[in-house]
Design a protein that fits this description.
This protein has about 180 residues and is of the alpha/beta class. Helix content is about 20%, strand content about 25%. The chain has a single domain, classed as Metallo-beta-lactamase, Chain A (4-Layer Sandwich), CATH 3.60.15.10. The radius of gyration is 15 Å and the shape is globular. One of its GO terms (molecular function) is hydrolase activity.
Length: about 180
C-alpha cells in the first residue's frame, strides 16, 4: 500500500522568475508485507497533517520502521524526530546499503543534490528530490535549484523511462497516463 500523507507545496513570491519561499515536501507512507515506511517527513509546520493522516490509516508513529530521506534538506526531513523507532535511510551516510525490503527499490537520482534518492514501490516512483513539480516532466521544466542541471535532467529521464506514477516533491502525483 502507498498513500500520500501530504502532497507538498511551494509558495511563490514571483512565479515568473521562480522566486519562492516556504517549500514543504511531500510525505508518503508505504506499507509492505515487512515494513512501514515514510518517504520524507516534510517541513515541521506539516506535523499535524502528517499525524492526522497516519491516524486515518490507523498507523501509530512508533510503528514506522524506516524513514527514507530523499536528501538532506530541512523542508524534506523536518519531522524525522516524530518517528523515534524508525531507522533513517539516506544516501549521504551509506545507510541505503543496509535497507532491505523486497517490495521497495531505492534509486540514486542526483541533480538537485548529489545525495538525492527516489523510491520505487509497485506502480509508483516517489521522487521528491528529483522531480519538484509536475512541469519538470510535462514541460521539461528545469528544477529551480540544482547542483548539476544536466545530471538532474538525466535523473528525471530515468524516472520517466520507468513509466510509473510519480510522486513529486511539491506538486502531488503525476499519473503515468498524463505523460506517457
Amino acid at each position: 500500500m502507498l498513500k500520500v500523507l501530504y502532497s507538498g507545496s511551494v509558495t511563490y513570491l514571483d512565479e515568473k522568475n521562480n522566486v519562492f519561499v516556504a517549500p514543504s515536501s511531500s510525505c508518503t507512507y508505504i506499507e509492505t508485507s515487512e515494513n512501514k515506511i515514510i518517504v520524507d517527513t516534510s517541513s515541521k509546520d506539516k506535523k499535524k497533517i502528517i499525524i492526522s493522516n497516519l491516524n486515518k490509516l490507523d498507523v501509530k508513529l512508533k510503528e514506522i520502521d524506516y524513514i527514507i530521506s530523499s536528501h538532506n534538506h530541512n523542508n524534506h526531513n523536518g519531522n524525522n524526530g516524530l518517528f523515534r523507532n524508525a531507522e533513517i535511510v539516506k544516501y549521504s551516510d551509506g545507510s541505503i546499503n543496509d535497507f532491505k525490503d523486497p517490495e521497495v527499490e531505492i534509486m540514486w537520482t542526483p541533480g538537485h543534490t548529489f545525495d538525492s534518492i527516489s523510491v520505487i514501490h509497485e506502480d509508483y516512483v516517489v521522487a521528491p528530490a528529483a522531480v519538484h513539480l509536475k512541469k519538470n516532466i510535462l514541460q521539461n521544466y528545469d528544477i529551480p535549484i540544482a547542483i548539476d542541471l544536466e545530471i538532474s535532467k538525466k535523473s528525471i529521464q530515468r524516472i520517466v523511462a520507468l513509466k510509473k506514477h510519480v510522486i513529486t516533491g511539491h506538486d502531488g502525483i503525476l499519473y503515468a497516463s498524463e505523460y506517457i
